[in-house]
Amino acid sequence: MSTTPEAIQANSALRHDWSTDEIEQLFNLPFNDLLFHAQQVHRSHFDPNQVQVSTLLSIKTGRCPEDCGYCPQSVRYDTEVENEALLPLEEVLEQAQAAKTKGSSRFCMGAAWRSPKDSDLDQVIEMVKQVKALGLETCLTLGMLTEAQTQRLKQAGLDYYNHNLDTSPEFYGDIITTRTYQDRLDTLQHVRDAGMHVCCGGILGMGESRQDRIGLMQQLANQPQHPESVPINMLVKVEGTPLENAEDLDPIEFVRSIAVARILMPASHVRLSAGRETMSDEMQALCFLAGANSIFYGEKLLTTPNPAADQDRLLFKRLGITAV
């Protein structure tokens, strides 16, 4: 692949056949060139001064049987997360209305399950229906789904389902052993088959190599249909989890990853997701320049900190960004 501006612009058409060598060439570009190319691709598909805003609520917290090395909700780790049962519908709707008032257009609900029971799904479906009635888009992350469960969620009107790949297939086993990479791909296929939008990304800073970041990007970009939403998370290190002492990822490398995601998936919303609490305004501004055009509003992402909505609105004002 040529990395001239003309070649990258030509490749702003949707592709699903990216090689690791091509993606590595993008990562290896001089930083200014990479951001320039990413911004060109971004402008060919989006208004560069608009950022989609979502809010994420944990509707069932803790006691997850999985062993994801980054997650404070695993029952296997001694963290300060308080275990909570499924929230009552009234509380979820109150939180959804507050999110809408603050400017969110999508309300995401997450439950710490390996996979939901059908009886649990009954209650979640009612949440989806009533949140949609407030005029918000809906997104869920509940773990693995069967084909039948996915069809039920589609019939309920669910807009997005989040199921991250987390990292490359090669590094995945160092982070998670209780479900396979193929398990995740199977759930994503069920979501696609049901006709729902896919929210799928990964986590950076878990000790992976650049080759693993390349591998993750390749897995995302070479899906038969790109995820409509691609959350790029910076690891939030939580005491008590296996990754609490992971080495910090170079911020420039993180911005590079955002830019590469933008070039590989031109029409997707690339979400600057977890880890923003520790990012400077300047780093976040670089991420927006690199093509990030979605964030989470709210002071908490499931169980980890996130900048307050007022702080985000102030940053948007300084940058001339409009929340949508």
Chain-wise SSE layout:
Layout: H1 5-10, H2 20-28, H3 31-45, E1 50-60, H4 89-101, E2 106-111, H5 118-133, E3 137-141, H6 147-156, E4 160-162, H7 169-172, H8 181-194, E5 197-199, E6 202-204, H9 210-221, E7 229-234, H10 251-264, E8 269-272, H11 281-289, E9 294-297, E10 300-301, E11 304-305, H12 309-319, E12 322-323
Parallel strand pairs: 1-2, 1-9, 1-12, 2-3, 3-4, 4-5, 6-7, 7-8, 8-9
Antiparallel strand pairs: 10-11
Helix pairs in contact: 2-9, 3-10, 4-5, 5-6, 6-8, 9-10, 10-11
Notes on the protein architecture:
Helix content is about 40%, strand content about 15%. It contains 12 helices and 12 strands. Helix 4 links the parallel strand 1 and strand 2. The model has no long low-confidence stretch (mean pLDDT about 90).
- Cα-to-Cα separation, first versus last residue: 35 Å
| Helix and strand composition category | alpha/beta
Q: Quick check: average pLDDT?
A: 89
Secondary structure: number of strands: 12
Q: Globular, elongated, flat, extended or rod-shaped: what is the shape?
A: globular
Q: SSE order, as H and E?
A: HHHEHEHEHEHHEEHEHEHEEEHE
Biggest β-sheet strands, sense, barrel:
10 strands, parallel
In percent, how helical is the residue content? 40-55%
What is the tally of helical segments? 12
Measured by DSSP, the beta-strand proportion falls in 15-25%
Gyration radius, in Å:
19 Å
In a few lines, what is going on in this structure?
By secondary structure, the protein is α/β, with parallel strands linked by helices.
Descriptive tags:
single chain, ten-stranded parallel β-sheet, 324 residues, alpha/beta
